[in-house]
Please model this.
Amino acid sequence: MKGVLKEIIDNVESLEWDHDLYVAEGELSLDSPAAVIEDDGVSETFEGLQYFLSVQDVQSAVENLRTQISNPNSGQVLEAIKHYHAYDAFIQFQG
Model:
């Protein structure tokens, strides 16, 4: 699946858990180019995109977010994913 990050976020539950998320370099936004591919675990790049997280990690970050916020918007999901990538930990939203 190739597209923009928002499309991938919106379909995160339907993605294969053993695939990987690749994104464009630079500051991530919902409009950032992204791809989800089945990877052999050794590729750091795919068609100019950089490895970011496994789909399993993305799904876990989203699942954790949904325990804190019942219906998070795409921006909140993006922040949770970026936080997980940066800190290898789930984000804690103040509610």
